[in-house]
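Dig into my protein:

:::
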Amino acid sequence: MEQESGRGRRVTILDVARAAGVSKSTVSRILDDRLPHSRSPNAQKVRRIADELGYTRDVFASGLRQGRTNTVGVIVPRLTDTAMAVFFEAISHASDRRGKLAVVATTDHQPDGARRAVRNLVKRRVDGIIFAADRRDDPVVSWLDESEVPYVLALRREGGGDAAVGDDVLGGYLATRHLLDLGHTTIALLTGPEFASNARLRQDGFREAMEEQGAAIDPVLVGATDFTVDSAADAVHRMLDAGHEFSALFAATDNLAIGAMSALARRGKRVPDDVSVVGYNDIPLSAHLPVPLTSMRVPFEEIASNALELLEAKIDHRSVTGGVRTSTPSLIPRGSTRRVI
């Protein structure tokens, strides 16, 4: 994975050594980020020539393949997303029980951020990566495959590859079924960005339950978000501004549900008297809101354990049954939903 030269040939460490008039081992030592940074004229010359030639150190060959560190890299979109923070904590606990250290990196939902996160973790010589930021338009998974970095997907899954996930279709179905069973037929939906498989699958579950019931889905009452509280509030304001009434709302995450409840309160709508609300993930805050939130509980500890087991098998080159481990969510009813009177 070393940089290609202008003629299409990959620039190697030997090319840098020849141009600088030093040995290959000298170049390797000077360009090794793990060693003390030398400011000698010779070191500065080597770095300048490496930059001019377009050389990039192969962190995969010189890092992961040199030995085990008992360190696991975890990549999530944001730690301000409470569900992702809870998941990382679950990974950290599961790693600790196995005598490993979990290290987190974030992508901020950007493909370039994902590639940067992978490179930074590999430079720190993690033994493998748990990738919880998979997205439809992200080339990073293909890049990981080509690089032979041990990795597994978690929480989201686009295409193939070993993965530990929740049953998001079932979760979306059960959340919507709960509202339908309470007598609601006009139900709004807050979903996530199109690139997130978990959001799309929860929406699929919503549609399945609505179609099964024969309940109409109003396109105006389907609001896309970027998973933030503010985007959820904005989506609910747009629905209400359009004059489309609804008696219930299903949000694809608890953070979205919290944003929805805030917007409803600002518009004089009471939860659950005027609008019943169901969230997803059952983050710790959900039970402690002024109106405790009904939510789909995701078994993060189980998913974390499954992800680590799959990753350890890949690191050890062992075959393991069930390349995709799917965990079942469960509904936790609370005060934010009520039966239609």
